[in-house]
Structure formats: structure tokens, C-alpha cells
Design a protein that fits this description.
Elements (H helix, E strand, L loop, with lengths): L5 H10 L10 E6 L3 H13 L3 E7 L2 H11 L3 E5 L7 H11 L4 E6 L4 H9 L4 E4 L4 H12 L7 H14 L11 H11 L4 H8 L3 H15 L4 H16 L6
Parallel strand pairs: 1-2, 1-3, 3-4, 4-5
Length: 242
């Protein structure tokens, strides 16, 4: 009996039925402080055939610590978190995970929060009442370079940009000390820790922050950090939006 040639054998092997390779699911991480909401969102994400929730964090601090190890494709971020807000968390995660897409989730469409979230680096902004089918579309959209958001929020974003373009960026007028304080602030340090690191009194740090708020036309630590980080991103990428 003649044996099949090596070439024939290869053809036979190539034609044999093989086990189908499972399509790798898109990795989603969730940052939400309410346990019941975390559970609901996790179940919803896992119900989509092409997505899997690989991690759910209850605080921004936990997200900054864990997500760089998990390397999610998309992060769904609650904007109202205890201590570190969702906006501050977005700023820090975008530095650690620049390729990861972040969609902000909130129960209400606040115009100023929309603007701050986008300045912080958010890639999309959705209301928590978004329908499951629309959420899945939004996840796919952001991975394809889109910026998912409701039509109402899109209108508010346009209005925000029209208002903010009239305000000149004052970050270039910050002193070296003010920049040092803002940098430490963006890393999540409290006024007391910043004072210890820079060998200043807490009152002096507060005085510097007050001047920073005036220069940047902001009224909170979160806004100051976002404006500062946005200005640094623009400086490093002159071709980007200003």
C-alpha cells in the first residue's frame, strides 16, 4: 500500500475540522461606589456576547491602583465617587492608561461636569438610564474612535465650549511653586501631605491654591487639576484642541 506523500498529508490535516477559536471578549472595567449598582452593571456588561466585566472598583483610589494591572479596553466611570471624584480618577487613569477608553456615567446631565469630564480626558459621557442596547452600541462606538453621548449632552457640550473659548488659559502665569502644588494635587495628595512634602505650612498651601483658583478661573480642587492637566496635554501636543 502506498503512503500519502508529505504534501498530501499536509492537505489532509489542513482540511480536518478544527475547534473554533473563541473570539476574545472586549474587557470592560467598572468604577461605581454603590454595591447594588456595581452588581447590576456587571451583570449587564456580561450579558453582552462581545464584552466581559473584568473588574469592578468601589472607589477612584482602588481604580488607580488596580486597573493599570488589569489593562481594560474600556472603563465605565461613575462621576460621583467618595473622596477622589470620577473626574479626578479619569485624569489619573488617562496618564497611566492612555489607550484605555473612559466613558463617564452619571444620573444627571450637568453642563459644567460634562465640560470637566471631557477636559479630564473622558472619551464619552452617558446617563445611567441609558438603555442596555444603547450602552452596547456606545461601547462599540468608543472603541471605534467615536465619542458616545446623548443628544442632550452633546448640545450642552457645544454650549460649554462656546462659553469656555471666551476664557483665556492662564496656566502659563502659574509660578513654579503653584505648579508644584498642582502636580501633587493631581496625584491625589491632601493639602497637609503637600505641605509636608514641600516643607510649607497648610495655610501657605491654601493661599497658593486660592491664587491658582483665581488664575485658572475655577472654584474647586477638581477643576484646578483638570484645567492644569488639560493645559499640559495641550502644551505637549500643539496640534490638539485648545
Amino acid at each position: 500500500m502506498s503512503h500519502p506523500s508529505p504534501k498530501t498529508t499536509n492537505l489532509v490535516k489542513a482540511g480536518q475540522a478544527e475547534e473554533p477559536v473563541a473570539k476574545q471578549r472586549i474587557k470592560v472595567a467598572l468604577v461605581e461606589d454603590q454595591p447594588k449598582a456595581r452588581e447590576s452593571w456587571t451583570k449587564l456588561i456580561n450579558s453582552f456576547p462581545d464584552f466581559t466585566c473584568i473588574c469592578s472598583c468601589g472607589t477612584g483610589e482602588e481604580a488607580v491602583r488596580i486597573l493599570p494591572q488589569e489593562l481594560p479596553d474600556v472603563v465605565l466611570m461613575d462621576i460621583f465617587l467618595p473622596r477622589m471624584s470620577g473626574i479626578e480618577c479619569t485624569v489619573r487613569l488617562k496618564t497611566l492608561l492612555p489607550q484605555t477608553q473612559i466613558i463617564i456615567l452619571t444620573a444627571m446631565a450637568d453642563q459644567e461636569l460634562v465640560f470637566l469630564a471631557l477636559q479630564a480626558g473622558a472619551d464619552g459621557y452617558l446617563l445611567k438610564r441609558t438603555k442596555p442596547a444603547d450602552l452596547r452600541i456606545a461601547l462599540l462606538d468608543v472603541l471605534n474612535g467615536g465619542a458616545p453621548m446623548t443628544s442632550q449632552i452633546a448640545r450642552r457640550v457645544i454650549e460649554s465650549f462656546r462659553q469656555k473659548t471666551a476664557v483665556r488659559d492662564e496656566s502659563a502665569r502659574l509660578t513654579i511653586r503653584e505648579e508644584q502644588i498642582l502636580l501633587l494635587l493631581s496625584q491625589g495628595y491632601s493639602n497637609k501631605v503637600i505641605a509636608d512634602k514641600l516643607e510649607l505650612s497648610v495655610d501657605t498651601v491654601c493661599s497658593h491654591l486660592k491664587r491658582v483658583f483665581n488664575k485658572l478661573h475655577v472654584s474647586s480642587r477638581t477643576e484646578a487639576v483638570v484645567r492644569y492637566m488639560a493645559s499640559k496635554t495641550t502644551s505637549a501636543n500643539p496640534g490638539g484642541l485648545s
